[in-house]
Design the sequence.
């Protein structure tokens, strides 16, 4: 597939040609689609940056289409880490004649990159572009887990219209459906009505309040480790740390917590795409939000480069296995602990047919706290939710 037809090259003005050769910045090291150059050959690339010039469905946040280049100005100035992965910047997906054209361009690009085991890092536009990311997996016929960092659920009231406040409803109602699990991180209770919370429970989806996560950020790690795709609404970060959003509020994650979440996500071998949405440069003060977003993208690169290539299985000697007897379940709960990273997983019992169909989902990331719960003769909530889905 020739995805180059969807992209515009990057302006040379984004690149600091006066950078010192002895200490090159990130902008000097990555492979970029620039003016008067050919579209990069993605063979051998590990990570691909994609800008999206689209904000027609960004509710009350017009101007977010200009996000990607503002972030690049800050990102290219940063020093790279001790990384071995090859990074390319493919430029910006141009705005289509209709918004559906833009969705198609993004979903086709995501499908192509994910299918070639390249991690797309998407910047710009409204969060409705999460729907286009999901459609990329639909093209691959891949069942996925989706994690979203957002102060609300984006179910919307007018579900017939697709925009940044209704995209989740469109994904849930899609037929055939390739969404195995949805996890919301950081919802703020006063923005979410009880009906939406009840729907999350009915669908066996996961939702975690802002306060519950900020009390112990380590508990966010297994949540994003379970994700195939992550969508990050910049409105989930408090306005003092990220003012560049028309819907920014006084509460939310701090800047360093946001960096911690995306690093956790990128460390996971399972994560295959990540998107940052709703940044609006016209509301930014002194480029603070652009700087933060650039640092978050930097931490995506950092997390990707410290991946452990851990794939839990009963034949893998890199894991220690614990079977914890639980009175409500005669076979007990099987836990796996990595000898490399000390991270934990649980194995959920399922039939052979479902084990094959849901090969990437019946082994569930968890924390030591879940192990302690099982040792106290209780089935962990995470285990129970997945078990009900597999039955």
Sequence:
């Amino acid at each position: 597939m020739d995805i180059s037809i969807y992209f515009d090259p990057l302006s040379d003005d984004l690149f600091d040609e006066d950078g010192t050769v002895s200490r090159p910045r990130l902008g000097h090291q990555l492979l970029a689609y620039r003016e008067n150059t050919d579209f990069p050959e993605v063979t051998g690339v590990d990570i691909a940056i994609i800008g999206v010039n689209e904000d027609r469905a960004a509710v009350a946040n017009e101007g977010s289409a200009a996000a990607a280049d503002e972030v690049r100005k800050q990102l290219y100035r940063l020093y790279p880490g001790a990384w071995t992965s090859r990074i390319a910047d493919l430029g910006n997906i141009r705005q289509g004649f209709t918004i559906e054209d833009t969705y198609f361009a993004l979903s086709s690009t995501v499908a192509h990159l994910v299918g070639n085991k390249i991690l797309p890092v998407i910047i710009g536009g409204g969060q409705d572009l999460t729907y286009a990311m999901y459609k990329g997996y639909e093209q691959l016929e891949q069942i996925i887990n989706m994690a979203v960092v957002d102060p609300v659920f984006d179910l919307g009231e007018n579900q017939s219209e697709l925009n940044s406040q209704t995209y989740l409803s469109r994904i849930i109602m899609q037929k055939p459906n390739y969404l195995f699990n949805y996890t919301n991180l950081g919802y703020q209770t006063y923005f979410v009505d009880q009906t939406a919370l009840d729907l999350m429970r009915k669908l066996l989806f996961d939702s975690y309040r802002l306060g519950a996560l900020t009390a112990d950020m380590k508990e966010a790690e297994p949540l994003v480790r379970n994700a195939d795709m992550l969508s990050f609404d910049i409105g989930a970060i408090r306005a003092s740390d990220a003012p560049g959003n028309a819907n920014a509020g006084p509460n939310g994650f701090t800047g360093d917590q946001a960096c911690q979440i995306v690093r956790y996500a990128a460390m996971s071998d399972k994560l295959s795409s990540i998107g940052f949405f709703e940044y609006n440069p016209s509301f930014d003060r002194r480029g603070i939000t652009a700087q933060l977003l650039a640092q978050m993208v930097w931490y995506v690169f950092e997390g990707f480069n410290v991946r452990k290539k851990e794939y839990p299985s009963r034949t893998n000697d890199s894991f220690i296995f614990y079977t914890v007897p639980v009175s409500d379940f005669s076979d007990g709960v099987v836990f796996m602990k990595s000898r490399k990273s000390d991270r934990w997983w649980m194995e959920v019992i399922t039939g052979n047919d479902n084990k094959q169909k849901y090969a990437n989902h019946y082994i569930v990331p968890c924390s030591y706290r879940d192990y302690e719960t099982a040792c106290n003769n209780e089935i962990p909530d995470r285990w129970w939710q997945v078990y009900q889905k597999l039955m």
About this structure: The radius of gyration is 21 Å.
